[in-house]
Amino acid sequence: MLGIIGGTSLLYCDLPPLEEKTVWTPYGPAAVHTGEIALMLRHQADRPPHQINYQAQMAALALCGVDRVVAFGSVGSLKPLIQPGTVMLPTDYLSLTDIPSFHNHAIEHVMPALDQGLVKQISEAVPTAEVGGTYAQTRGPRIETVSEVQALAKIADVVGMTVASEATLARELEIPFAAVCTVDNYANGLSDEVLTYEHILATSKKYARRTEDLVGAVVQALGA
């Protein structure tokens, strides 16, 4: 079963009929919309990025029978050439903050990776997407400082607050994982625009139809 992770706007996309249910896991409950696919809304109960129960959410998807996950996330561009409106399929990621783990009571080293087979399938379904690049995760909920953006730009291409955590947990569960990143703005300091949360929301709303098209293409290609 295909698992999709994203924001609340995904509920308004053209998806197969889904039924919401609460899945109880050793890490707490998580709401999942299930049917032909499984849809997980990451900001459940309006939780900001640093308060999301990532372990419960990923465990719930696994318990629902999900065997591959595609996460959709809004990101900021760290490079002037990566313009807002770009769709990127990153092939690597990094995090400058704590990453949750299922291995809290035993020593276990897991090799992190985004699944290149999934990336290839998504790129075929969404030929306009740019393949490659590194996703940098910061803790949130605050926006990165100008100095942080300048430092991150030396080692990454886009910045967000969720995908690295989800990707690592999926890897621990041996579930192939890939991300579709929609570039909704330049990171702080890369443009004359003052970056605010309201601005980010307005931009996400502006590109809502694009997100629907992306989700639809991915579900059609990988949902069978």
Give the distance, in angstroms, between the N- and C-terminal Cα atoms. Answer: 8 Å
Secondary-structure content class: alpha/beta
Calculate Rg over CA atoms.
16 Å
Overall morphology: globular
Instruction: State the total count of DSSP E strands.
Output: 11
Count of discrete alpha- or pi-helical segments spanning 4 or more residues: 6
How is the main sheet built?
11 strands, mixed
Could you list the spans in which at least 5 consecutive residues all have pLDDT below 50? Answer: none
Overall pLDDT confidence: 88
Order of helices and strands: EEEEHEEEHEEHEHEHH
Quaternary organisation: single chain
Protein described:
With 224 residues, this protein is of the alpha/beta class. Helix content is 28%, strand content 26%. The protein has 6 helices and 11 strands. The chain has helices at 54-63, 116-125, 146-152, 163-172, 197-206, 208-222; strands spanning 2-6, 19-25, 28-34, 38-41, 68-77, 87-89, 92-95, 130-131, 134-137, 158-160, 177-186. Strands 1, 2, 3, 4, 5, 6, 7, 8, 9, 10 and 11 form an 11-stranded mixed beta sheet that branches. Strand 2 and strand 3 (28-34) form a beta hairpin. The longest helix is centred in the last third of the chain and has 15 residues, at 208-222.
